[in-house]
Amino acid sequence: MESIHLNVALLRRRVPNLTKAARSVGLRPATVSNLCTGKIALGRTEVRTLVALASLAECSVDELIIRGEKFEMIETGIKTIDLFAPLAKGGTAGLVARPGMGQLVVLAEIFHRLKKEGYSIVMLQPEGDHPEISDITADVDSVHLTINEAEKAVIQAAKTHEVIFVSDRSHVQNGSIYQLQEKWAGEASVTTFLVDLKGEAVDEDLPYGPLETLWQFDMDLSARHMYPAIHPIYSTSSVLEGANLDQEHFSTQQKAQKLLRRYRELKSIVRASGMEPLSDTDAQLFKRGEKLESYLTQPFFVAEAFTGVKGTHVPMKKMLTDVRKITDGGYDHKGVEEFAMVGSLD
To answer: What is the phi/psi pair of residue 179, to 5°?
Structure first.
């Protein structure tokens, strides 16, 4: 089957304020966001939705659809990211979280890992006073005060390296990031990270405009110190479109999400009344979901000095094997405490 997906880069360039524009033509921003990240398959989208988006971008429907190309995944070795919301190489990833939920730690860890893979990391200084930004600059090659400086640094670095570019949401709101991406389009291989240091993006639809990857952080996981606190249901990526993943990854991801959805439904019952009201089947699903949720926590290299726990890198194939074994009941005999803050299940 031919791979088709939305031309997110075109939408990003042509319709900077996509939330307002989508509503103006009767489209739900959440629907547009899910189309951009691939959570809603393009092949199942109503024609009127595509026509409305094409109208906003002032292009034809054919221009809005990319055929045959596949998104390449950047494997991070971070279990919950690689399973539920893989990083799309050359795409734009947005982090949605309130302060204190661990988004900067995740960014610092990503930079630390990709630096070892030979990536060059360029940052655009956020507007305003944000001392916490120092937490993520250890592996950043250069920090720039202006758009022009950042553009020159990215293009120069791209001559010899794959490039990671990071910016705060303030530069997205004024449209400067879209202009920057348009300038280096075709000249450089750049994967962009957008972060919201003020924590306002949580309350908005499409806070960054169209994205290839969305990492939504979960308050419940964060409150229970289950890091990285990335939501396994709401986080998503265009890499997850069926044609981009091998069948093993796709089926494992779908089965894991189904289990965690049911686990989260049952958790409210267990909190209120204990395990007694659950049927044997639901009790089994609850315990497997609890173990999977615990397994998706992971020690980070950048946190070793604070936690005293050595960071772990889990290859994707090993992670998929572990997840399948948990969902299929291969670890039903083990206690949930054996899954917390570990790497692979060797």
So the answer is: -65, -40
Amino acid at 192: T
**Total-model pTM:** 0.87
Q: At what angle do helices 280-295 and 316-327 cross, to 10 degrees?
A: 160
3 state SS for 308-341: CCCCCCCCHHHHHHHHHHHHCCCCCCCCHHHHCC
E strands along the chain, which residues?
4-6, 65-67, 73-74, 87-88, 92-96, 120-124, 142-144, 163-168, 190-195, 213-216, 236-237
* Residue 217 to residue 215: CA distance in whole angstroms: 6
> Rounded to whole angstroms, how far apart are CA atoms 264 and 289?
8
The pLDDT profile of the chain, 346 residues, written as one tens digit per residue, is 456 778 888 888 788 777 788 888 898 888 888 888 877 877 778 888 889 998 988 998 888 887 766 678 999 999 999 999 999 999 899 999 998 999 999 999 999 999 999 999 999 988 878 888 888 889 999 999 998 999 899 999 999 999 999 999 888 767 778 778 777 776 778 999 999 988 888 888 788 888 889 999 999 999 999 999 999 999 999 887 655 668 889 899 999 999 999 999 999 999 999 999 999 999 999 999 999 999 999 999 999 999 999 999 999 999 999 999 999 999 999 999 999 999 999 7
What is residue 144's three-state secondary structure? strand
Structure tokens at 119: 């990536």
Paired strand residues for 4: 67
CA angle 275, 277, 281 (to 5 degrees): 75
Strands 236-237 and 213-216: antiparallel
Domains (ranges, CATH) in the chain?
4-67 (1.10.260), 73-244 (3.40.50.300), 247-339 (1.10.1140.10)
Q: Is 294 helix (H, G, I), strand (E, B) or coil?
A: helix
Q: How many CB atoms lie within 10 A of CB 26?
A: 9
Contact 339, 295 (CB under 8 A): yes
